[in-house]
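Project outcomes to date are best conveyed with an example. Our students and postdoctoral researchers have been running inverse folding experiments weekly, and each run begins with a structure described purely in tokens. The record below, which covers 140 residues, was selected by the lab manager from last quarter's runs and is presented without edits.
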């Protein structure tokens, strides 16, 4: 199984995934990291600009993608090609993979109502909550 982490600098988990050019790809064997390498995408290959459904992509073979943010439409597009995506506040790529493998990755929903956005909106004057909008907790 391969896990990709959006990471522009190779040191921190990046956002937004749609315009990210650099990923760390972890090959997982028997629940452990077997191999890790970096993958650089061209401008034409970034996820926001690429037709994932109708063309091969350098992230083909990845089953899980983790980033610090993505639009809900991107999450759905990734699902269509068999990639499960997660948005997390974890900034360390290695820790994000380890937490995912251990079933302890703290995640938030993709799109405009993620935890960070939710908390920032509550601080703004005149905030009116969207019915049912709330931050999400851990993966069960």
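After processing, the design step wrote out the following sequence:
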């Amino acid at each position: 199984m391969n896990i990709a982490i959006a990471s522009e600098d190779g040191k921190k988990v990046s956002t937004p995934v749609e315009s990210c050019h650099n990923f760390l790809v972890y090959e997982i064997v028997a629940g452990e990291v077997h191999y890790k390498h970096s993958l650089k995408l061209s401008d034409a290959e970034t996820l926001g600009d690429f037709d994932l459904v109708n063309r091969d992509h350098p992230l083909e073979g990845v089953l899980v993608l983790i980033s610090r943010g993505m639009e809900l439409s991107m999450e759905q597009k990734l699902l269509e090609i068999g990639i499960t995506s997660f948005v997390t506040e974890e900034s360390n790529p290695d820790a994000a993979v380890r937490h995912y493998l251990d079933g302890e990755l703290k995640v938030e929903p993709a799109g405009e109502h993620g935890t960070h956005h939710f908390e920032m909106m509550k601080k703004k004057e005149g905030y009116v909550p969207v019915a049912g909008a709330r931050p999400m907790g851990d993966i069960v």
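The beta strands are 2-6, 22-29, 32-40, 62-67, 84-88, 107-108. The first strand starts at residue 2 and ends at 6. The training component of this project remains on track.
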